[in-house]
Amino acid sequence: MENLSKPSSEEKTALKWFNTHFLEKHLQNYFNDKQLSVASFDINSGSGKRDNFASALFRLNVVISNDSNCSSTKILKLIVKTNLEASGCLSQAISDFDIYGKEIEFYRDIAPQIQNSLKKLNENFPLTAIAYGVDTAETVMLLEDLVESGYRLTSVHEGFDVDGAKLVLKRIATFHAITAILQQENPNIFNNFKYGMVTRHTDSYNTFYTTGLEIIIEITSNWPEFTVYTEKLKKLRETLIEKARCTFDIKPQHFNTLIHGDIWINNLMLKFKKKPTELEIEDVILIDFQYTCWNSPANDLQFFFNSSLKESLRPNCFDELIEYYHQQLVTFLKRLTYKKSIPTLEEFKAQFYERSFYGFIASCFEQPAMTSEETEEADMRSLLGVDEKSMNYKRSIYRSPKVQDKLRKLIPIYDRMGLFN
Questions:
Q1: Element (H, E) at 280
Q2: How far apart are the C-alpha atoms of 187 and 82, rounded to whole Å?
């Protein structure tokens, strides 16, 4: 998020419509001030390739004034998020998941209601960035630059400790509780948020999982002590996609709500308070709502636990963290007067562990890609591709000693859980 280089030629293409008139229209609407004018603006690239696989991010400094002579001005710092031109399998995936349309609708219609709910609860923490404007025609969002308020991304190689994880879980529980209430008040509010990262709606991401499994099998085939596991992984070829899809099947008897759908360390903006000998997380804001969907909140926890915790906590601290999350969820649901059945701790634990196969997907497929080195090949096209270049890139991910150490640790655990049966 600290990259301030000028936009590349590909990014300039994505910004060909961006001008003063566009900014004035949206900022006048947000501030409800028709006299507001844009004196000038400067735009720079806002992220690395891995920070946002399917979008273009830019940092925007806007000089605005609300008098005709521009005698009094102030600088507004924003993030511009828009689509990148895509082709082939990536274009199909973007269309199938409607990731841009869904995120625009979230920031336009859902995020303001979430913030209003927080105000009613007298909670003074934000859950999302402010949206200064969204534009469906140009597929763009003008968002608050959270860095200006002291938030930042942390390294994808840094996992959360228990205290940090609990703060994230409190924010996730608040998000889940509020959106459950929004659906209680308006049953149709999330009609366009049907599909998560794993779905029966499309096969667009299947190659990412099937090729990942083949590479894992290639690796474990060279480990004599893993012969039993390798044979089970080979049999998993037949059921991998179905098992993954089952984790996202809606079960009406379970507690369901709007889930973030992609909760990992790079989609969490953190504010730190300095202590004498260490940094302590003070606040967390959720970003990137492209895979937000109506589903079991257990899937958010499975993804977060298996992608973003310190290795020493997986899976040893899962029960402790589930209990903390459940406590927070119940508290906020009761404060918001939730009228439906609230799951007991044991019911929610069962809901979580029923979806353990999604934990396998998160830790053995998603996390290796998330934490890979940022190279020219590190993009969504390569992750979805099956050509030689894409396969070589994916093999390079799994050649990492850290990734292989995780496979050695986790595959036996998942086997004992019966996930490969």
A1: strand 279-286
A2: 29
